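Dear H.,

Thanks for agreeing to be a second pair of eyes. The structure we're designing against is below in token form, covering all 95 positions.
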């Protein structure tokens, strides 16, 4: 099942409403679940990025649609990477 790691950065709007970030995150997880996407983990970070999401779902377009909706709220920007397990990576390398 495709899995993605998304690094989050608050926009100015998101930084101004930082106190509501956990509530927004819970709502995002509920919305994602309804569309068939699992939020495996959500973390807030200190440093260059403000948070991390780990998402999985049967169809990559579902995952990317959820992230597009998240970004459209205007609170965060995302930098998203598809991640692979060791077995998935071996399958890619072995062709």
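And this is the sequence the design step returned. I haven't edited it by hand at all.
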């Amino acid at each position: 099942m495709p899995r993605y790691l998304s690094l989050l950065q608050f926009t100015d709007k998101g930084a101004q409403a930082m106190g509501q970030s956990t509530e927004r995150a819970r709502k995002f997880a509920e919305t994602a679940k309804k569309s068939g996407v699992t939020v495996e983990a959500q973390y807030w970070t200190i440093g260059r990025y403000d948070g991390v999401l780990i998402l999985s779902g049967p169809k990559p377009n579902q995952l990317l649609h959820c992230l597009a909706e998240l970004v459209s709220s205007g609170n965060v920007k995302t930098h998203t990477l598809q991640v692979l397990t060791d077995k998935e990576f071996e399958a890619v390398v072995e062709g």
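Two observations from my side: The longest strand covers residues 3-10. The chain has one domain: 3-45+54-94.

Warmly,
E.
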